[in-house]
Amino acid sequence: MTMSDTPTPELTGGALKRQLGRALRRQKLRALMLVAPLLIFICVGFLMPIVSMLVRSVENNIVVETLPQTITALESWDVDSTELPPEPVFRALVADLQVAIENRTALNLARRMNFEAAGWTTMMRRAQREMPDWDLETDGPFRERVLDLHRDWGALETWRSLKAYSSPYTTGYYLAAVDLTMVSGHVEAVPDNQALHLMLFWRTAWMSGLICFMTLILGYPVAFLLANIKERHANLLLILVLLPFWTSLLVRTSSWKVLLQDQGVVNQFLVWIGLVADDNRLTMINNKFGVIVAMTQILLPFMILPLYSVMKTIPPSYVRAAKSLGANDWTAFWRVYFPQSVPGIGAGAILVFIMAVGYYITPELVGGPSGMFISNRIAHQWYVSGNWGLVGALGTILLLAVLVLYWVYDKVVGIDNVKLG
Amino acid sequence: MSQARADGFVVFDRVQKSYDGEILVVKDLNLSMPKGEFLTMLGPSGSGKTTCLMMLAGFETATHGEILLDGKPINNIPPHKRGIGMVFQNYALFPHMTIAENLSFPLEVRGIGKSDREAKIKRALDMVQMGAFGNRRPAQLSGGQQQRVALARALVFEPELVLMDEPLGALDKQLREHMQFEITNLAHNLGITTVYVTHDQTEALTMSDRVAVFNDGRIQQLAPPEDLYERPANSFVAQFIGENNKLDGTVETINGDKCTVRLDDGTLIDAQPVNVSKAGERTRVSIRPERVESNPDRLARDAHLVEAEVLEFIYMGDTFRFRLRVAGRDDFVMKYRNAQDQRRLSAGDKIRIGWRPEDCRALDA
């Protein structure tokens, strides 16, 4: 090979960038191939469900798909009017329902409208029995016949909500998720006896915050001990901290049930030493207290581990330096050691709080009605009511709330200051 | 020791230390320092020098014996009440505070008012030429600058005693030499008593008034740098300080401050008896490479000469270095200054070497 005498021309601007891009392409491709399985898994198992949840929370096809002619006919009817819709609307309704009954979609519509106002299932069952026999050409007018089927067809509310939910998208689920409802085109608060979600959101937030604080109070000394004793002892202690991880969550929660119930270990002991009267045992389960105790214990390792890994990186020479400069034990800790452990507190607090906000099993088992979290409500809406739209809306609000918190946290503490190890 | 106890500013009196209750890390340490002295504790790692420093600072407790500071026993005084300034190995500047806040810390915990604090901080930073850096954070400074700040922080509350634990270990060679000079100057100008720990013998020799050479939990020799190099008290010190040739043999004759030693291969050499007292004793003699003479004309007429063969010649710029085979050993080193009149030997040359008796010390075997 002979060396060329002319020097290699120096590339500038875009040309150099392209060359660099070409040189790195293979490397990037290979890196992408390595992460591809995880990437695909995340897309299928994480992103798609979230997108589907977002879609479900606003989707409202069922009304317009089941009653297309009725919705068209309703367009000229004013929601604020005190008159029932005119005959053509009723005729369109009969036509639509005849098709829906044949296609077996009428009850789906009833289930959907039931989320807004009760009674639709009965209305629809009656219609299913009578309407298929009616002849659209000869049996009119239909207004009186429909009103005879069920008196609710004569209620203005029925038609108002039908019109309100006639578009393919709706904000109704979100309104319901924050205890509001759409009445005659106006947003109103639901009656107090039905308002539940805001209270549950608030309870979930403050109880998660309290649990987070409790894990910090209990976990900080443990993490400090772990980081400052001999390796051999630290490993043993670490195993004790991790032990709960190797036990099923269900088992741990159930064992709290055993401990805290009326005839449980704690109450028996308190009665035995005479601190509590036998007929006046403490209620420590199926309420907030039980949830806080059980969740604090269950989430404790998630606080201890980030704290420990940060504390392990703090050299003991800092505290020694502080003492040699004249600080007593407390000042050395508070002004020198503690500020350097803050990144660990941040990491632990975020981890515990976010996990607590979405917790389900423990509040379900030891919470009772007063210790219920928002996720229990979401689960209830899902498998008892089948209201997927509301489930989506509640879930989305929960997700957004966590994202907003994360953002605020980043502004205040700075996410760069968070260390998991 | 009682006299020293009365005189010394810092006194270790029969101090012992064990971490596990089985092995003594420090065995019977006796040391007395006058006020204003710069004393270096030098030794290989694990020799007990850092433990001694930590006992003085109050982070370790002596298992036996007493440590006195200015005549008062300090065994039971916690570290924050001892008022001793300390510079740590990796500086231990608080990363979440600015330089000024770092310096302010020891003044705040002493309850000194704001204006006084500011004046003292400014004076301390100016002293180490870091006056312009008060608002920076430690991470924004170079190693050398952090070193200066650590020094300023240890001095800002005007302690009478300052401890330094290998403070220059993390710096590069040039900066280290510069800082050695600055630290000694500062210490002498301020009249501070300084205890300096290092494993770097050059540092110990250039900086200190006296050096305590540690090994195996004991002070092997406590002497000014010159004595240490010229007159090592035992073979450990001779080996540890500077380069050194060692030859094993038996004392043949002793006559006052001169003796002859019969090496194990039968060669007879001149030496000065240090740790030997009578003929027939085993000994290990030590000769500095630069004191070996290959020109017999420069030695006394009756000096014993030794046959040697040049094995290797190493050019080192300012010096020439020769590896020789002497008395059956291949690691004998001879050093010349690089001067016009020096002859260059090459591998394979057979020469005769010798030395003045006072340059060859007959030590413990």
Descriptive account of the structure:
The complex is a heterodimer of chains A (421) and B (365). Chain A folds into 2 domains: 61-168, no CATH class; 197-417, Orthogonal Bundle (MetI-like fold), CATH 1.10.3720.10. Chain A is 68% helix and 2% strand. Chain A is built from 19 helices and 2 strands. A two-stranded antiparallel sheet of chain A has the order 1-2. Chain A starts with 12 loop residues before the first helix and ends in a 9-residue tail after the last helix. The model of chain A has no long low-confidence stretch (mean pLDDT 87). The model of chain B has no long low-confidence stretch (mean pLDDT 89). Chain B has helices spanning 2-7, 49-57, 99-108, 114-127, 143-155, 173-190, 201-207, 225-230, 235-240; strands at 10-18, 24-33, 38-42, 64-69, 72-73, 85-87, 161-165, 193-198, 210-215, 218-223, 245-255, 258-263, 268-273, 282-287, 306-315, 319-326, 329-337, 350-353, 360-363. The longest helix of chain B is centred in the middle third of the chain and has 18 residues, at 173-190. With 365 residues, chain B is an alpha+beta fold. The relative contact order of chain B is 0.11. The A-B interface holds A 315, 317-318, 320-328, 331-332, 335-336, 339-340 and B 57-59, 78-86, 88-90, 92, 94-96, 105-106, 109-110, 153-154, 157, 163.
Reported by name, the CATH topology of the largest domain in chain B is Rossmann fold
User: What does the largest sheet of chain A look like?
Assistant: 2 strands, antiparallel
What is the CATH C-level name of the largest domain in chain A?
A: Mainly Alpha
* CATH first level of the largest domain in chain B: Alpha Beta
Number of strands of chain A: 2
Helix content of chain A: 55-70%
How large is the radius of gyration of chain B? 25 Å
CATH topology of the largest domain in chain A: MetI-like fold
Unreliable runs of chain A, pLDDT <50, ≥5 residues? none
